[in-house]
């Protein structure tokens, strides 16, 4: 489905100026451009365009109230200066799985003074040495990069139910640690029983 049609569908007979959240994931945009979105979406606080083959943000309308922008799994490699101009109050930006290769592509985000959280999972930039330190240095306003702060503490909103879930369903990092501990325990148990257990 094309992005323009998807927007009409998501409106569900509401006026664009009443909409606060718009999810356009997995629709299609022509020529890698945003289409069908305009300045009438004045109250939009969350906009999600995950996996829509987006290459450019040039046609992003003025969205002064926008706080959260989800752009994972697209082909964006730069042009992020548009964000500070069009979405000055952005607090969360997800660019995971895009073509962000180096720090220069992110410099424009310095102008997003309210930005607290940035996601860059599966972007080439994450293969650079000390990329986390470099990004925290470049974007001093952000608290969380890929869900963790500079001290590797997890962002609160992603795991507030941890207390009930610690029996196995905690956050992925915890799970991995628990998994390796359980693996060690299984090995020890197997040795105690005198039988070999395949890993």
Automatic annotation (TrEMBL):
GO terms for cellular component: cytoplasm; nucleus. The keyword Ion transport does not apply. PROSITE patterns: LRR. Pfam families: LRR_9. InterPro entries: AN32, Leu-rich_rpt, LRR_dom_sf. GO terms for biological process: chromatin organization; regulation of apoptotic process. Residues 148-199 are annotated as: Disordered. The keyword Ribonucleoprotein does not apply. GO terms for molecular function: histone binding; phosphatase inhibitor activity. Its main location: cytoplasm. Residues 180-190 have a biased composition (Basic and acidic residues). Residues 149-179 have a biased composition (Acidic residues). It is found in: Cytoplasm; Nucleus. It comes from the Eukaryota. Keywords: Chaperone, Chromatin regulator, Cytoplasm, Leucine-rich repeat, Nucleus, Repeat. PANTHER family: ACIDIC LEUCINE-RICH NUCLEAR PHOSPHOPROTEIN 32, ACIDIC LEUCINE-RICH NUCLEAR PHOSPHOPROTEIN 32 FAMILY MEMBER E. Histone chaperone that specifically mediates the genome-wide removal of histone H2A.Z/H2AZ1 from the nucleosome: removes H2A.Z/H2AZ1 from its normal sites of deposition, especially from enhancer and insulator regions. Not involved in deposition of H2A.Z/H2AZ1 in the nucleosome. May stabilize the evicted H2A.Z/H2AZ1-H2B dimer, thus shifting the equilibrium towards dissociation and the off-chromatin state. Inhibits activity of protein phosphatase 2A (PP2A). Does not inhibit protein phosphatase 1. May play a role in cerebellar development and synaptogenesis. Belongs to the ANP32 family. This is Acidic leucine-rich nuclear phosphoprotein 32 family member. It comes from Molossus molossus.
């Amino acid at each position: 489905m094309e992005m323009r049609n998807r927007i009409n569908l998501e409106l569900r007979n509401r006026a664009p100026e009443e909409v606060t959240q718009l999810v356009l994931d997995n629709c299609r945009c022509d020529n890698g451009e945003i289409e069908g979105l305009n300045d009438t979406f004045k109250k939009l606080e969350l906009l999600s365009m995950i996996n829509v083959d987006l290459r450019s943000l040039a046609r992003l309308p003025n969205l002064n109230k926008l706080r959260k922008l989800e752009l994972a799994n697209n082909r964006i490699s730069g042009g992020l200066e548009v964000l500070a101009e069009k979405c000055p109050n952005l607090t969360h930006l997800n660019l995971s799985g895009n073509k962000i290769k180096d720090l220069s592509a992110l410099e424009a985000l310095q102008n997003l003074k309210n930005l607290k959280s940035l996601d860059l999972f599966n972007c080439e930039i994450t293969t650079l040495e000390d990329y986390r330190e470099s990004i925290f240095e470049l974007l001093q306003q952000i608290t969380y990069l890929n869900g963790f702060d500079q001290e590797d503490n997890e962002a609160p909103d992603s795991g507030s139910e941890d207390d009930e879930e610690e029996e196995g369903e905690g956050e992925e990092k915890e799970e991995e640690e628990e998994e390796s501990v359980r693996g060690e325990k299984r090995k020890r148990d197997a040795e105690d029983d005198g039988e070999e257990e395949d890993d």
